[in-house]
Write a structure and sequence with these properties.
Rossmann fold; 8-stranded mixed β-sheet; 4-stranded antiparallel β-sheet; 12 helices; about 25% strand; binds adenosine-5'-diphosphate; binds iron/sulfur cluster; binds magnesium ion
């Protein structure tokens, strides 16, 4: 039996704002097999980051995890104290955000900040810490690590900074790495290099990885399994190859039609309409105002997330009868 590293079960994380309760994550469930790369995909505002922050136990005010379970290696993180959570976050669960500047301190050299991280996880001599930092920089394919260690973050390119942020997240040899849109702020060619690096590291280190993105093209390159989020709920879960060949949820199909592809024979079709307001989300299926296949039942009844065989799950009243187009 493959081991499960993370199981998120009916997670609800809401923001209690003056304008009302934002149901950002509203009953999200998925699990991740140890040593595998999982993609979490959805348009901006679908609850990807809030899901990640919930796992890390750092949901900002006025947000709060309202209910659910987050089992990490069998332990429910929602029952941990803040002090206990510090033993998970940044140690057993690494995090890389879309903004490398937020994880690097501009006032310290790369070498200083990496050795600080290395020594908080493990007592060691200065010399041993230095060696470990050099190893980490080599791990993320930084040439001339001894020279780079003396640089300040602002002296490095965006791609290089993101590599350092990855090195920092890997310093404690975490069991799980969550990378939240790690290449969004980078140039296209650099994006490809950073993604390639993450994919290679995932394989080399046998690392469990959650890769968050709004881009199905990145999912195709990076993930073995995909969880598609829409407006705070799971639309569909499947193996990557299967979801590209035969999506079962109209939203997944729409996301696939919106992926730019060089070899594309059909035109790109953007998804019409906007992601809904999560204070007063649409009734029934949250996708119904944008769905080409909507029927009355979609407005009145929430479609449950249903296991449909082969490890696939879908939440659509009409999945059986629809014949949706894949990406070919
Ligand atoms: N601090 C906050 N206060 C109020 N609402 C928030 C806050 N942070 C996120 N949200 C809301 O939660 C929803 C999900 O956001 P997020 O997880 O950041 O989306 P994604 O990462 O998929 O783009 C959005 O509707 C967003 O407006
Ligand atoms: S439940 Fe209805 S509205 Fe929702 S995706 Fe399925 S067909 Fe579309
Ligand atoms: Mg986000």
């Amino acid at each position: 039996m493959p081991e499960t590293v993370l199981q998120v079960d009916d997670l609800k994380t809401y923001f209690f704002t003056e304008a009302g309760v934002v149901r950002a994550v509203d009953g999200v469930s998925f699990s991740l097999t140890k040593g595998k790369p999982l993609g979490l995909v959805g348009e901006s505002g679908s609850g990807k980051t809030v899901t990640a922050l919930s796992v890390l136990g750092v949901v900002p005010r006025p947000g709060k995890i309202v209910s659910g379970k987050i089992l990490f290696e069998g332990e429910n993180l929602l029952e941990k104290t803040e002090n206990e959570m510090r033993g998970f976050r940044g140690k057993r669960i690494g995090y890389v955000s879309q903004d490398p500047n937020s994880s690097l301190d501009p006032l310290f050299t790369v070498g200083n900040q990496l050795s600080e991280v290395v020594t908080t996880h493990e007592k060691m001599s200065k010399e041993a810490a230095r060696e470990k930092v050099v190893d980490l920089l080599r791990l993320v394919r930084i040439a001339e690590p001894e020279t780079r260690m003396r640089a300040y973050p602002h002296e490095l390119s965006g791609g290089m900074r993101q590599r350092i942020a990855i090195a920092r997240a890997l310093a404690s040899e975490p069991d799980l790495l969550i990378a939240d849109e790690p290449t969004t702020n980078l140039d296209v060619t650099i994006q490809a290099q950073v993604l390639e690096l993450l994919r290679a590291l995932q394989r080399e280190l046998d690392m469990s990885l959650i890769l968050i993105t709004h881009d199905m093209g990145i999912i195709a390159e990076m993930a073995e399994e995909v969880v598609v989020l829409y407006a705070g709920r799971v639309a569909e879960v499947a193996r990557t190859a299967e979801i590209f060949a035969a999506p079962r949820h109209p939203y997944t199909a729409a996301l696939l039609q919106a992926v730019p592809r060089v070899d594309r024979k059909r035109p790109l079709v953007p998804i019409g309409g906007n992601i809904p307001n999560l204070i007063t989300p649409p009734s029934g299926c949250r996708f119904h105002p944008r769905c080409a296949y909507m029927i009355d039942r979609c407005v009145s009844e929430i479609p449950p997330l249903e296991a449909i065989g082969g490890g696939r799950e879908v939440s659509c009243h009409r999945w059986k009868e629809l014949e949706l187009r894949g990406s070919s």
